[in-house]
Design goal:
single chain; Rossmann fold
Length: 307
C-alpha cells in the first residue's frame, strides 16, 4: 500500500463488512480467505503494478502477478463456487513493436520488461484456469488517472506530489503516446463484465479491452501540461534527463470495439472531464477536505453522467 493511500485517506474501510489482510504469494493465506468468504463475485486486482519497479524487482513482480494469480484462482477452484471472476491485467500485456497500431484482444501477447511480461503471463494463467470451468474474464485497461493515486514513478501522482510540494515536475518519456482515461471508466467496464457473468451469461468469459476514444490517446507531455494548467496557480513542467526514462514503448493504443459492440460499454467521461475530477480531488486533499465525501461525490457524478 502506498503512503498515503486512497484506502486510508478516503476511509474506505468504514464502508466494508470486513478487511482481511494477506499475501497472494501465500497459498495457505489465500486459500483460508477464500474458504471463509466463499465469494460469488471475485475481482482480482492484487498486483505489483509499476513498470519501473518491475525493472528493479523482477522476481517480486513475477511472483506477485503470475504465481499470485495462480494461487488465487486455484483457491477459488478448490474452496468456492464463484459465479463471476474478473482478473485485472493490463494494456501492457501485448507484444508491442511501438508502431502505434491499436491492439485488439486477440493480438499476440508479450512484453519486453518484467512488468509487461508478467501481465502477459497472467493472461495465460487466467486462460488455463478458465479451461477448468471458472466463469472468468480478464480485463485490460488503458492508462488510468484519478484522485487518490500515490504510486511512485507514475505520471499523475508524481505531478501531484510536485504540485503539493511547490516544486517543478520532471516529465519522463514526454513523447510516448498512451490511452488515458479516468479510473472510474475502467471500473465501469470491469463491473459490467462481472454483472453479466453473475447473471449466468458465459459469453463475457474472455478478454476485454477498456480504453478511451481515439482523441484521448495523447503524449505524456500533453497530459502533464494539462494537469499543470488545472492546478491552482499553475505548475512548472520540465523534461527529465534522458537517462531517467525507463525505455518504454513509444506508443500504445487499444482497440476497444469488442466492449462497445458486445457489452454496450463506452467511457462515460472523456479525458478533459477525467482530468478535471483528478486535479479537483488533489486540490481537496490539499485543503483538508473530507476525502471520503469527495470520493463518493465524484463516483455519484460519474454514475449520473455529470460533467
Amino acid at each position: 500500500m502506498s503512503e498515503p493511500s486512497l484506502y486510508e485517506v478516503a476511509g474506505v474501510a468504514g464502508g466494508m463488512a470486513g478487511d482481511v489482510r494477506g499475501d497472494v504469494r501465500s497459498k495457505s493465506e489465500v486459500r483460508a480467505a477464500v474458504a471463509r468468504a466463499r465469494p460469488d463475485v471475485v475481482i482480482h486486482l492484487a498486483a505489483q503494478p509499476l513498470v519501473r519497479r518491475g525493472i528493479s524487482k523482477p522476481v517480486e513482480t513475477f511472483t506477485i502477478n503470475v504465481t499470485g494469480t495462480a494461487k488465487v484462482l486455484e483457491a477459488l477452484r478448490a474452496e468456492a463456487e464463484p459465479r463471476a471472476v474478473v482478473v485485472v491485467t493490463s494494456d501492457k500485456c501485448y507484444r508491442n513493436d511501438g508502431g502505434g497500431t491499436p491492439f485488439g484482444e486477440d493480438d499476440p501477447l508479450g512484453g519486453d520488461d518484467p512488468y509487461s511480461a508478467s501481465k502477459a503471463a497472467q493472461e495465460h494463467v487466467a486462460a488455463a484456469f478458465r479451461a477448468f470451468g471458472l466463469p472468468l474474464a480478464t480485463v485490460r485497461a488503458g492508462n488510468v488517472i484519478g484522485g487518490g493515486d500515490w504510486a511512485p514513478e507514475r505520471l499523475v501522482p508524481d505531478c501531484m506530489r510536485a504540485a503539493l510540494a511547490g516544486e517543478p515536475f520532471l516529465v519522463r518519456t514526454p513523447d510516448a503516446v498512451r490511452p488515458w482515461q479516468h479510473a472510474l471508466c475502467a471500473l465501469d467496464g470491469y463491473l459490467t463484465v462481472a454483472e453479466r457473468l453473475l447473471a449466468g451469461d458465459r459469453a463475457p468469459a474472455t478478454a476485454w479491452n477498456f480504453g478511451p476514444d481515439e482523441e484521448d490517446e495523447r503524449p505524456v507531455r500533453w497530459l502533464a501540461e494539462r494537469v499543470a494548467k488545472r492546478w491552482p496557480g499553475g505548475l512548472e513542467v520540465r523534461e527529465a534527463p534522458p537517462e531517467e526514462a525507463p525505455g518504454e514503448a513509444p506508443a500504445l493504443r487499444l482497440d476497444c470495439s469488442r466492449a462497445r459492440a458486445e457489452l454496450g460499454w463506452t467511457p462515460r467521461w472523456d479525458l478533459a472531464r477525467g482530468l478535471d475530477a483528478t486535479v479537483s480531488w488533489y486540490v481537496g486533499y490539499r485543503s483538508g477536505a473530507d476525502m471520503h465525501a469527495e470520493t463518493l461525490r465524484q463516483i455519484a457524478a460519474f454514475q449520473q453522467g455529470e460533467a
